[in-house]
Amino acid sequence: MCGILFRLSPGLAATPKTPRAPNTEVLRLSRATLPLLFDHVASMVSRRGPDAQTLVEFQVPSQTSPMNAALFSSVLHLRGSCVVAQPRTHRESGSLFCWNGELFTEDEGLKVDEGVSDTDVLFNAIFNQQLATSFKDSLLATLSSLRGPWAIVVYHAPSSTLYFGRDMLGRRSLLVHLPNIGATSESLQDPGFWISSVAGSIEDRGKSQEADTSGDDGASEASKEGDSGWDDSDNFWHELPANGIYSVCLDEVDLFAGKEEFKRHLKHYPWIISEANQSDVSLASPTNPILNKTVPTPSDLPQYRQFQDTTNSLEIPSPPTEAAQEALDTFTKNLSNSVAARVQTIVQQAKLKNEEQEPLAVLFSGGLDCMVLAALAAKSLPAGSSIDLLNVAFDNPRVRKAAADAVLLQSKKDKKAGKKVKGKKGPTAEENQDNAVTEPVVPVVSESNPPSATYPSHLFAVPDRKTGRKGYEELKRTYPEIIWRFVEIDIEFEEAVRLRPWVMGLVNPLESVMDLSIAMAFWFASRGRGNIVDEAGERTAYQTTAKVLLSGLGADEQLGGYNRHRKNFDNYGWEGLIAELQKDVSRISKRNLGRDDRIVSDHGREIRFPYLSEQLITHLSSVPVQIKTDPRLPRGVGDKLLLRQMALSLGLGRASVEVKRAVQFGARSAKMEDGRETGTMNVSI
User: Fold this and answer.
1) Residue 426 in contact with residue 407, Cβ under 8 Å?
2) Are residues 461 and 535 in the same domain?
3) Integer Cα distance of 321 and 569 in angstroms
4) pLDDT tens across 474-528, in order?
5) Where is the composition biased (Basic residues) (predicted)?
6) CA–CA separation, 631 vs 577, rounded Å?
7) Residues in the chain where the model's pLDDT stays below 70
8) With contact defined as beta carbons under 8 Å apart, do 532 and 486 qualify?
């Protein structure tokens, strides 16, 4: 993994040769601070890749006026015997290459042998192929063969052309700023053309748009149906659409002509799914996200007798047909291969470098999606491997106050009713799902007043902590050959408030309350700093050393895990459910994977998404809808039915009936100060 920063600016001004040490404060972007932006963003990019940082400057011949280009990259070393610094230079042509990604060979695509850097493999494939075609054709053909997450910036020196883009699913972040001198809006004007993995700054927003909350865990404006191109907001930074590769001939552009004129110089090479529609200006899609739209007939739908009596406890039914069993077997095989490809690089690196194997980490709530990933990772790693289950919980004073008020109100009602209340204590974590506590305390944390003294553990007994502990115990019982560490990451309110602007700088250009709530949970979880609690209740401070984190994103979208999927079925039947699932699968690239990449990578770690394997998406898209999800069945059974059946086969009986809960509510990172906030509101810093 790496971070990328490119700037094209007018004139011959030099760029600082060595970016300053990583910042500890977020930059508030304004006309006064704009000259500091390259230095600041370079330091943020450096946090993504602590193993190597390189800056290359070059002059761009121009038909209009002289231009200076700077390309900076940082590297997190995860593959190969030695660090491969970037940007890489092609000696014969003087071209430059920056790559942020991972190549995973599951069934097809560009092959990467064990112990070899995928950066070297891709570089050689692009530049050293003896093709009787143009560089553009070589680049597009190679990118079409990739499997895995990536973002890329390539400068082809002979043609002065810059190519840049992201994988079809948008799993790696890439932001852009187009030259906007002469704009009539209130936006911050800058004639430079920028590309970066991260913004690392807060902007004074102009007129902003509300977020799209059609996804239960929060998709922002880019998720809206039909938004397939560049957004027109006044933000300085914009997320590059993951709809293909873009190129621009740098020696033809005039940076002072404005944004719209610059856009006219951009060429777009889109992803094409059907071979019949492919041309020399397109990329072959690595996956087929077009769903099987066959509407099930009554004879296709099994009748589940055990659920006719609603008093029965939840139980996952077995696949009712041979076709359903075959779909489950293929799903299990493909997801197992996807997990194995994403975790076995850890084992390979340890062998290659003759070092102790680093742990794998999982963003862990104890829910269905992450439990299945943890189990499959356990089956893919050798005995004795370590897996850190990163479980985050926030002390939410608003929830605490509401609970205290409820206790006080009940006490008054009891007294009014003539009941005697003798030393009533606050409910325990197991007694109260909402974690009500009686102490209406907003503690002050300092060196003389440590957190453990003022933040008792029950303040962090949030819903995800409870399910997380249960999931941890189930994994230990089922896969005892693995060293499991349940890392309790407790975030005090004061720390959350103090670091909120920093996280918002990483979320940028997104700006909704929901984006920030989710990002806060992911940033603190992926920091990996917490405590291990032994069976005697003793707490030991722990900091994970894992460089690779697994995320369960993608399961809900493909397998009908959201409440709105059930609502669409109730309102519009199977046709409505299929249509809603198709929307979700089609807009996965706009579901803020770039945001999650920016958040996790800030700690020098890499996030990987096994549910978003290209092979897995193609398979699940072909499976009839009633096999994947059956909204006729109760919540915790019918939603993500196919995944629940897999969980059961993996020995995860408890997890197989776990009901979905959005991370910002499970960890209590949402509505920490204002209960009237909604996810669609924009954040004010």
Assistant:
1) yes
2) yes
3) 22
4) 999 999 999 999 999 999 999 999 999 999 999 999 988 889 999 999 999 999 9
5) 416-425
6) 9
7) 12-24, 129-133, 182-187, 204-229, 275-281, 305-313, 398-410, 418-458, 662-685
8) yes
* Cα separation values, 29 from 151, 183, 199, 397, 549, Å: 25, 17, 10, 31, 31
Q: Do residue 28 and residue 177 come from a single domain?
A: yes
**Cα–Cα distance between 511 and 525 in angstroms, integer?**
20
Residues 36 and 124 in one domain: yes
Residues 520 and 597 in one domain: yes
Residue 539 sits in a domain whose CATH number is: 3.40.50.620
Q: Per residue in 48-80, pLDDT tens?
A: 999 999 999 999 987 777 899 999 999 999 998
CATH number of the domain bearing residue 149:
3.60.20
Residue 387 β-bridge partners: 360, 484
Share of the chain above pLDDT 90, in %: 62
Residues 113 and 11 in one domain: yes
**Sign of the torsion angle spanned by Cα atoms 446, 447, 451, 454:** negative
Query: What pLDDT shows up at residue 631?
Result: 96
- The CA distances from residue 261 to 59, 112, 141, 255, 417, in Å, are 22, 41, 29, 9, 75
Per the domain annotation, does 229 fall within a domain?
Answer: no
Give how many domains the chain has, as a whole number. 2
The dihedral through the CA atoms of 602, 605, 606, 610 has a sign that is negative
Residue range(s) defining the domain that contains residue 272? 2-201+234-284
CA atoms within 13 A of residue 50's CA, in its CB half-sphere: 9
Same-domain check for residues 196 and 278: yes
Helix axes 614-622 and 322-353, enclosed angle (nearest 10) = 180
Asked whether residue 53 falls in the same domain as residue 169, the answer is yes
Q: How far apart are CA 523 and CA 531, in angstroms?
A: 17
Residue 201 in 3-state DSSP? Answer: strand
